[in-house]
Design a protein that fits this description.
Elements (H helix, E strand, L loop, with lengths): L1 H14 L1 H33 L6 E5 L6 H14 L4 E6 L7 E7 L7 E5 L4 H5 L4 E5 L14 E4 L2 E10 L2 H4 L4 H7 L6 E5 H6 L6 E5 L5 H14 L4 E3 L7 H34 L1 H9 L4 H29 L1 H6 L8 H18 L1 H7 L8
Parallel strand pairs: 3-8, 5-7
Antiparallel strand pairs: 1-9, 1-10, 2-3, 2-9, 4-7, 5-8, 6-7
Helix pairs in contact: 1-2, 1-11, 2-9, 2-11, 9-13
Length: 368
């Protein structure tokens, strides 16, 4: 059966070389479009999920709460829910730095770190005397991790990282609160949240980031925060319909449209190939081949055609990865995902064309 299918494709390649090449190239291009656009959609969705400020609650800490009590509330906050990020900001209103106690990762979501490293789990666990500072607070020209100190609550802590930290960016989505408490700061010092409380610092503001997928989830987190900080003013995150979000939706819609067109293109190629091979399949039936044999032949031949296009697509993608990375495009690269896409596309195109496949496995006197 496989030999017969390969013979048919070889005959097609010799007698209708241009048609055969166009078929393979078109299938390859469809795979490329699906891979690239799926990568684009994935990156756009990932970028949307990284907009931390839109999932962040802002808590105005009531006056009179000391460092020890605040530490207990931090502990209740971290143990009672699963926030992605928590940071507490302390600022006395003078032209000095904002001191922030931090729990969680940064990964350049909140600000860009230029040198060194960010706080890790062990820094938080052991209340390490380390800090990440904004660039204007670093005292030397060349960065050296852990060499130069900065003062926080009258204590020297070693600088392990330097970043571009516009304080206002940390309070995106809570501009009015920022203006009341933090405006006028001349730099930022970020400590592990455990070090922050150990140094006896109290917070004016606390920001807590969750994954908020609905109004119901937001209300649940709001109620929890009220139980931890009774009497505090809590500002919920607001997802604004900005130009950026509208552009992202438009980009995702266009990418999804291109993916759909690629699927339609493969289905159209399948139809064209079936119509082109109709006479050959009829001759098989006339020569005594059973209907099931002809259907199996058709499915096998289309599988081999799709496989050729897939192999060419993988080769092109592998050879152009450097160019794609330079352009900031990350196509599907996992071998398992690529194989799944190949099987999925083959099965979808076959299921869509199954009626035409069955029609081809009949005797059509007009094509003999």
């Amino acid at each position: 059966m496989i030999q017969a299918a390969l013979k048919d494709l070889g005959l097609l390649a010799r007698k209708r070389r241009i048609v055969f090449i166009v078929l393979i190239i078109s299938i390859t291009c469809s795979f490329l479009v699906i891979s690239l656009m799926t990568g684009v959609v994935r990156d756009l969705i990932r970028s949307a999920g990284m907009g931390s400020m839109w999932n962040t609650f802002t808590i105005e800490v009531p006056e009179g709460i000391g460092a020890e009590e605040l530490a207990e509330r931090y502990e209740a906050l971290l143990s009672g829910s699963s926030p992605s990020t928590v940071f507490a900001a302390s600022f006395d209103g003078s032209p000095s730095a904002v001191v922030i106690g931090w729990y969680g990762k940064n990964e350049n979501r909140w600000f860009v770190q230029d040198e060194g490293r960010f706080l890790d789990d062990s820094d938080v666990k052991y209340a390490a005397k380390v800090a990440v500072v904004s660039e204007e607070l670093y005292p030397a020209f060349a960065f050296e991790e852990g060499v130069h100190p900065v003062q926080a609550a009258g204590t020297d802590v070693n600088i392990i990282g330097v970043g571009t930290v516009p304080t206002g960016v940390l309070f995106t989505g809570a501009a009015d609160v920022f203006d009341r408490y933090i405006n006028g700061a001349s730099g930022t010092v970020i400590l592990p949240i455990t070090t922050f409380t150990e140094l006896g610092l109290t917070a004016n503001l606390i920001r807590v980031e969750y994954s908020v997928g609905s109004e119901k989830i937001m209300a649940r987190y709001h109620a929890f925060l009220e139980s931890v900080f009774p009497g505090a003013q809590i500002t919920d995150p607001v997802i604004a319909e900005t130009f950026y979000s509208a552009s992202m939706k438009e980009a995702i819609s266009r990418s999804a449209g291109l993916i759909m067109l690629a699927f339609i293109n493969i289905a159209a190629l399948y139809v064209y190939w079936l119509l082109m091979m109709r006479r050959t399949h009829t001759l098989y039936m006339v020569c005594g081949a059973s209907r099931s044999t002809v259907i199996t032949m058709i499915l096998l031949e289309w599988f081999l055609l799709t496989l050729l296009g897939y192999i060419l697509y993988v080769t092109i993608q592998y050879c152009s990865m450097t160019v794609l990375e330079f352009m900031g495009i990350e196509p599907i690269s996992s071998a398992a995902v690529q194989a799944f896409c190949f099987v999925f596309i083959y099965l979808i195109s076959t299921s869509l064309m199954i009626r035409q496949v069955i029609r081809n496995a009949q005797i059509h006197s007009e094509v003999i």
